[in-house]
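Input/output pair, single chain:
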Amino acid sequence: QVQLVESGGGLVQAGGSLRLSCAASRRPSISYAMGWFRQAPGKEREFVAASSWNGGSTYYADSVKGRFTISRDNAKNTVYLQMNSLKPEDTAVYYCAAAPWSTTAQAMGVMDKYGYWGQGTQVTVSS
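Output:
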């Protein structure tokens, strides 16, 4: 069992930056691919970014490519999402999630592959 706790959300003006953190409760985070998803009011949860278990490969939704960066520090059992040039349409609850290390590149954006989820952190971008 892995527990994930997100932090770092808040209110920011358009064009600003935030860094989200996701701390895993125990060491096995090193064995998991990690992803970030988000859900805006009235919309379905969508894929944002993912990292392979060792951070060697990263994946991004087209809507955030070039603005967001996912990284991980396995020594600290933590994964990060650096969000730059934020837009009002980035407003959502952001969730981190863990998937088996063997998850393929093609499956990184598939929610069903992720067995563990955090409680979410709110990001609000004002115009």
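The CA atoms of residues 13 and 126 lie 5 Å apart. The chain has a mean pLDDT of 93.
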